[in-house]
Amino acid sequence: MASRRDWLLQQLGITQWTLRRPGVLQGEVAVSVPPNVRLLVVAQDLPDHHDPLFCDVLHSLDLIPLQTYSLTPEQAAMLPENTECNSWRLGVAEPLAVAGAQLYSPALAELSQDAGAKRALWQQICHYEQHFYPDNGRSGHSLQD
């Protein structure tokens, strides 16, 4: 049932709007993906781009750190609705509202100590290889346990 205020506004012919992203009015800033980025990296604790395991995963995807964009889950939520980019969620279970392949693994510190998690990440990379290597398939790189 509509409130009295809603009823009065309707009687006056005033259209009411509902904000899709009210946080924008509270000072949150929209985030956009730079054109050179081929992989969004989403984590609570953003990875060091010089971390050997992080670099190994990027190498297996035929990427360099400059082709990645690291975001916290809160920043990722501010991406425009039509964003298309492959992503890697490190310790973030909730899928992103972004088109493209989404890889998931534990946070980098945990991943480095867990051979099973590395294997699962590699299986995801193989499953989504057409997204990462659209022209020629996997390039033969491997992750080391």
What would your notes on this structure say?
The structure is a single chain. The protein is elongated and about 65 Å long. It has 6 helices and 4 strands. The protein has a 4-stranded parallel β-sheet with strand order 2-1-3-4. The protein has helices at 4-11, 52-60, 73-76, 108-112, 115-127, 129-132, and strands spanning 39-43, 68-71, 86-90, 102-105. The chain has 145 residues and is α/β, with parallel strands linked by helices.
Brief account:
By secondary structure, this protein is of the alpha/beta class. Helices cover 30% and strands 12% of the residues. The protein has a four-stranded parallel sheet.
How many runs of DSSP E, i.e. beta strands? 4
User: Helical proportion?
Assistant: 25-40%
Mean pLDDT across residues: 87
Quickly count the helices: 6
Poorly predicted spans: 137-145
SSE order, as H and E?
HEHEHEEHHH
Which strand order does the major sheet show?
Answer: 2-1-3-4
What fraction of residues sit in β-strands? 5-15%
Largest sheet: 4 strands, parallel
Topology summary:
Layout: H1 4-11, E1 39-43, H2 52-60, E2 68-71, H3 73-76, E3 86-90, E4 102-105, H4 108-112, H5 115-127, H6 129-132
Parallel strand pairs: 1-2, 1-3, 3-4
Salient structural properties:
disordered C terminus; single chain; 145 residues; 6 helices; 4 strands; alpha/beta
